[in-house]
Amino acid sequence: MAVPIRTAVAALCAGLAATLLTTAPARAEQDDQVWAVSAAAHAPRAQISLDDTTGTLSLAVSRDGRTVIEPSPVGIVTEQADLSQDLRFLHRKDRLIDERYRAKSGKRLDRRVRMNETRLSFATSAGARLDLVVRASADGVAYRYVLPTGYGDVLGETSAFNLAPDASAWLGTYRVDNEGQFAQYTAATAPTGEYSDQALFATDGGYTLLAESDLTGTYSGARLAHTQGTGTYQIKLADDRVATDGPVKTPWRAMVTGDLATVTQSTFTDDLAPPSKVADSSWIRPGTVLWTWLAGGREAGQSLTAQKAYVDYAAERHWPYEAVDAGWYFKTDEWDTTDPNWQTNSWMPELVDYARAKGVGIIVWIHQRDLDTPEERAQWLPTLERWGVKGVKIDFMNSEAQPMLQWYDAILAETAAHHLMVDFHGSTIPKGIQRTWPQVMTLEGVAGEEKRTNTAAHLTTLPFTRNVIGSMDFTPGAFQRVGLRPNSDAAEVGLTVVAESGLQMFAGTPESYDARPLARAFFDQVPAAWDDTRLLAGQPGQEAVLARRSGDRWFLGGVYAGAAHTAEVPLTVGPGRWLVETIRDGADGLVQDRQVLRGGDTLTVDVVAGGGFAGIACPWRPGITTCYR
Fold first, then answer.
1. Where are the domains of the chain?
2. 20 to 30 A from 580, CA-CA: which of 339, 480, 521, 572?
3. Exactly one of 395, 400, 449, 543 is catalytic; which is it?
């Protein structure tokens, strides 16, 4: 019975979208059937309209009078009520949201939230109630549905986003592990199919990134369904039926909006999420990590001797963490099979003690299947905490359906209770999770360094799509994978800045680092938590140059697609004189350049095909010869 329900909801979505694409301009606000929400004069403006004839709602977004999102369907359908049509307006309530919070990782640690919120209440002729809550800030617009108890399970949304057909679009094909490649189309020419909801569009009103926030096990994950030839992207839920046992409060449907720098630097999806549920977060410490999977594979994962050698290297480099990947608790003679006596047979406590003595913390990999019941989690998590493990890398969730989201709710609370930082792989994407659960340092949900099909264009799109909404475990630094990655060595160094991650996993081998001492020295300097982030130059699919500040130093990372050229980057990191040390590709390997520039000057760097650069800028005065410390 679920298939016909989904088909009916999809047809309703398509019909409403087609109707709204041809709807005449909205009427004047005094009609009381059009409502506007905005945070300031030049900020994004949401306009919600109620059609008198059909009782259908639409939402449009503009900025400075230019269209961002064309009038788009708004509505939700449950077992007991169709809240997508036959609606009449009841009342409006407004409030200002003004908050400050401090993050543990991300684009900046100190955050300020200022949003205007409007709650519009509607009812059907049968008396069914729908509240549409809309928020607007300087960098985005979002809405969610709130329903009272008693309407039964949710069968789907009629929510969609209507874009100008010729709007440039950067889309990632949807996969359950969110590891699709990003490619460029126009809104209408993108092939028929499903796309990740982290979709970027260039519109008359600027750039817009579609996103989701505050997704929990009370609901279902969303993706975008598109039919080629239209500019419409419909919300499609992972579940045909979303079980409810009380009032319904859906996730936020978010539109991060502005110029490219505003979108890239935005924390809007975090700002929409609930405040932290971790009262004492002093044990949560971002940092760089020597990751051993691409460095050593299965053999390393089952060898205490190999892992001690990796710990030695991390300690020598003053890298705060070492990550032990798959295999450490598997049977030695049967790969991928959990040793039932892992608690007593494992060498992990010995490794943790060995690493602790050298000032290195241990992160361990665990398959989700070993944590999928309360009984298993009650065995694993206290044991790891007792051993002194600092964090867990949990892999292979591969679902955004409601039962898996309910598992996320459980594991998030329990890892916080046991003081374990978290890196999710084969996972959902952040969606505000890092504000609410700050022990989540990073999530994969990206076609990262492990992939053999990445392109330079994909790498230069990620800062404007996936990494906008939260930390991204791309795992840069795999210098040994020559021929398996599309970029140069200097671009690989730059990725440690471009790809933000609260646990920055270095994917190379010690031998590959030692063969590139300039890269190794940069890795010794780069932090994993940032005081600020700025986009210095960028065009999705072509170039991305970011500056991230730690204290008084700005770390620079640039990645490029296309032919060799001389890159020109505005050094917009503040007034005064700056010593800038850059690492680029030379004829015989990596080369370091030093120069003193004024803030706002143009930094020029020679870039090879598919190349990039890394750098550090620090305040200069006579006698300062390096930014390295």
1. 2-272, 287-530
2. 480
3. 395
